[in-house]
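INFO  loader      accepted 1 record
INFO  loader      residues=108
INFO  predictor   begin
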Amino acid sequence: MNRAEVLGLYKSILRLHRSLPMEFKILGDRYCRQEFRNHKSVTDPGLLTDFIHEWKTYKEHVEASKKGKETLERLGKTLTHSQINSLSTEQVGQLHTLWEETNKPFLI
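INFO  predictor   done
INFO  writer      dumping tokens
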């Protein structure tokens, strides 16, 4: 995937976030921007492939939610035990940080 395609994916995700409730949009935009910024200089093709695959999966999930296949109360995805066990220490830390952010009181 070339730079223009990655930028297109990034922009399409931010556009999708516009359809989410404000607190989800703000959190989603922040997280998306940070992740894409953090991976801007990655050169390992395997890591880039995984990164793009996961964001495409996320985009499909949000699109399905937007079409009413899921309610907002159920927005998200439960990780299996094998998925959790396969996470690196850094990924577990990121997941914990995300959990903390989503459990803070929302202030605009």
